[in-house]
Amino acid sequence: MTAIIWVVIITHEVLNLEETVGMNFIIKLMAVMIIALSINIFLGRWRVKTRKFSLHWFLAIHIAVPLIYLLRVYEGLAYWTIPFLVVFSVLGQIVGGRL
Question: What is the pTM of this model?
Answer without folding.
Answer: 0.78
